[in-house]
Amino acid sequence: MRELRILIVDDHPGFISAAIRHLRKQPWANVVGTAGNGIEAITQCETLRPDVVLMDMAMPEMGGLQAARLIKAQDEPLPFIVIASHFDDTEHREHALRAGADAFVSKLAYIQDVLPLLERLATEETP
Fold first, then answer.
1. Is domain 4-123 annotated with CATH 2.60.60.30?
2. How far apart are CA 98 and CA 56, in angstroms?
3. Of 60, 67, 72, 100, which is the most buried if we count CB atoms within 10 A?
4. Strand runs labelled E in 18-96
């Protein structure tokens, strides 16, 4: 199982703290940074080169959809982007995927949805 370098992006520090607390329990998870909006996420991706970006859809200054588009336009290797939102419906899921996200999870079931997804990524063979 490989280690995943993870960047968490959310405008709520409490949400970031809770996500970090849960991810620290996983031997394959290494939270390498955090960001409070999409602009910071782009900068952090350029600097840290995470394997995975866990990003909120709605944030001030720049939301997750626009940030996902810009992150996916960066140089390789590109991170696996997971967009999270309280709005869990087909329309929001489709917007996230069209913006370049690799997955969408509901914030209402965040840990239950994101941990199995990340664990699957950690067990995949690297290219």
1. no
2. 15
3. 67
4. 29-35, 52-56, 80-85
Distance between CA atoms of residues 127 and 43, nearest Å: 25
Quick one: tokens of 105? 């999870």
Burial of 51 (0-12, 13-18, 19+ CB in 10 A): buried
Which tens digit of pLDDT belongs to each residue from 7-45? 999 999 999 999 999 999 999 999 999 999 999 999 999
Taken in order 16, 21, 22, 26, is the CA torsion positive or negative?
positive
**Strands (E) located in 3-126:** 4-9, 29-35, 52-56, 80-85, 103-106
Give the pTM.
0.93
